[in-house]
Amino acid sequence: MSHPSQIEFVRSVMARHPDKFVGVSVLEVGSLNVNGSIRQFFFDCDYLGVDIGPGSCVDLVARGEDLDFPDGHFDTTASCECFEHNPNWKETFLNMVRMTRPGGLVFFTCATTGRAEHGTTRTSPDDAPFCGDYYRNLTREDFEPLCTEFAEYEFSEAHPPHDLYFRGIKNA
Predict the structure, then answer these.
(1) Torsion sign, CA atoms 168, 100, 12, 114
(2) 1: how many CB neighbours lie within 10 A of its CB?
């Protein structure tokens, strides 16, 4: 979590789905606390923060695409500001959906068209440690074909900072 627009988006998801933020099992992919964490929005939860390197708010070091929890293991899965740094963003997203229980919540934020490259050795490596040099702004059109497992979903954007936001409820 690195800027106010992301915080406002997470608050809006929480207001719409309060039952998905209290007393549930949660997976956060890309949980390293760089400039803040979404963990603060969850209460009395079985929370697992995963990232590709160790640090604050990281409970398990692993790649999102490689996680092998059972289908439907988590009530809520989330990822904030990491897909643009992950060359396997598609596999990671689909794996998050797979691990979300039917009727569960999936949400994410990521950089979209217009956002300057960040978090690479070419730009600002401290903004996304462990990520190397992969960077790609993602769009709704990138994710739309992957949304077949959702009973409902929506995308929105914030400009600035040029972020794509997604919230979806998995088919029951």
Answers:
(1) negative
(2) 20
What region does 116 belong to: left with phi over 0, alpha with psi -120 to 50, or beta?
A: beta
Confidence band, pLDDT 50/70/90 cuts, at residue 3: confident
Give every strand in the sheet of 150-158, ordered side by side: 60-61, 46-51, 25-29, 74-80, 100-111, 163-170, 150-158
What is the extent of the structural domain holding 63?
Answer: 4-170
Which tokens go with 104?
């569960």
CB atoms within 10 A of CB 46: 12
**CB within 8 Å of 54: residues ≥ 6 apart:** 61
Count of structural domains, the chain: 1
Give the CATH number, domain containing residue 113. 3.40.50.150
Range 114-131 average pLDDT: 84
